[in-house]
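Incident log, support desk, overnight shift.

02:14 A customer reports that sequence design results differ from what the structure should imply. Their input is reproduced verbatim below. On-call engineer (initials T.W.) acknowledged and began investigating.
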């Protein structure tokens, strides 16, 4: 199967339960970063901000994953207790509510990281 060309195509290719769970996560991510560019990166939906990757997200059989990077996942480790995590990955079960306020905090934190990176690059 080839990689989807856009997020709409990615969503259309998912079973209904997975699509519904991912749309909840996508809504929370986009609410935190409404002006970010939504793209497909590594065959999954992602957001870019200030020219850098912000977060990615994907649907799986029993969960949706948010990929904010290792530093962000580590920074929020106390708030993520009860969720399965791995380096740079946070898994939210399909049968439980998405912690919207936490997702927004993570995304906004990543935006600040990208802003700092863009300032450093501009100084060079």
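02:41 Re-run completed on a clean worker. Output:
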């Amino acid at each position: 199967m080839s990689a989807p060309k856009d997020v709409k195509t990615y969503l259309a290719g998912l079973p209904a339960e997975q699509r519904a769970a991912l749309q909840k996560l996508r809504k929370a991510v986009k609410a935190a970063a409404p002006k970010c560019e939504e793209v497909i990166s590594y065959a999954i939906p992602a957001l870019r901000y200030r020219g850098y990757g912000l977060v990615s997200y994907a649907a799986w059989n029993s969960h949706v994953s948010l990929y904010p990077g290792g530093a962000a996942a580590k920074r929020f480790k106390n708030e993520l207790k009860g969720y399965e995590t791995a380096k740079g990955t946070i898994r939210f079960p399909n049968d439980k509510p998405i912690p919207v306020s936490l997702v927004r905090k993570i995304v906004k934190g990543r935006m600040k990281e990208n802003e700092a990176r863009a300032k450093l690059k501009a100084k060079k």
